[in-house]
Amino acid sequence: MPPKPKTEQERKRIRTAILDAARDLFIERGVEAVTMREIARRVDYSPTAIYLHFKDKESLIRELCDTDFLELADTLQEIGRISDPLERLYQLGLGYVRFAVEHPNHYRLMFMTPQILKNQEGSAIEAGNPEQDAYAFLRATVEEVYFSGCFRAELDDQELIAQTLWAGLHGVCSLEITKKNDHSLNWRAFESRIEMMQQSLMHGLLKNNVQ
To answer: At what angle do helices 134-147 and 85-102 cross, to 10 degrees?
Structure first.
C-alpha cells in the first residue's frame, strides 16, 4: 500500500490518478460493474487506502462528474470573450468538438453513457452558470443570437435551437469516437464532416441575409 500523502499537491495527484482510473474502468466495464476494490487495484492501492480519498463509490462518481464537466466549461471560457454572438456560437461548437476528440473517455462518460448520478445534490457545478455549465453557455449564446435577429423568424424556441445544435455536433463526435477505426466505412476527414455539419445547421437556422 502506498504511503499516506504528505502534501496537498501529492494528495491532489493521487485523487486525480484515482479519478482517471475510475473513468477508464467505467468505460471498459460499465459503472455498475466496477467496484472500489478494482479502482484501487488499478492505481496500486489497497481497498482500505482508497477510502482515505473517497468515502464511497457515489462520492467518487460525483467528483468525477464535477471534474469532467468543469473541465469542459473551462476549455470554453476563452470563446466567451468573442463579442460577436454569431461567431461565438460557431466557435463554441468547434470548442466542444475539440474537447470530445482530445478527451474521448471523458466524453463517453459524460455524454454517451446513462446518467450515473441519481441526483445533483452536493454537486460543485452551479447549474445555469455559463462559467461552469457548458449547456448554459450554449443556451445564453443562442439567446444573444436570437435577440440580434439572426435566426429565421419562425424559429422562436431558443431551447430547441440550442438542443438541435448540440445534437448535430454530438452525432459527429460520437461517431468519430466509436467508429473512426471501422475501415468498412469510407470516412471523409473528421474536420470536413464537422464543417459540413456546422454549415448545414447554420443554413437551416439563420436568415438568408445573415448566411
So the answer is: 160
Cell numbers for 2: 502506498
Read off the pLDDT band of 4 (50, 70, 90).
Answer: low
Q: Evaluate whether 50 touches 25 at the Cβ level (below 8 Å).
A: no
In angstroms, rounded to a whole number, what is the distance separating the alpha carbons of residues 4 and 7? Answer: 9
CB 141 within 8 A of CB 89: yes
pTM: 0.89
pLDDT at 2: 55
pLDDT of residue 115: 72
Alpha-carbon 200 to chain mean position: 23
Confidence of residue 86 (pLDDT cuts 50, 70, 90): very high
Task: Tell me which DSSP letter residue 151 carries.
Answer: B
Q: What is the dihedral of CA 167, 196, 109, 113, to 10 degrees?
A: 50
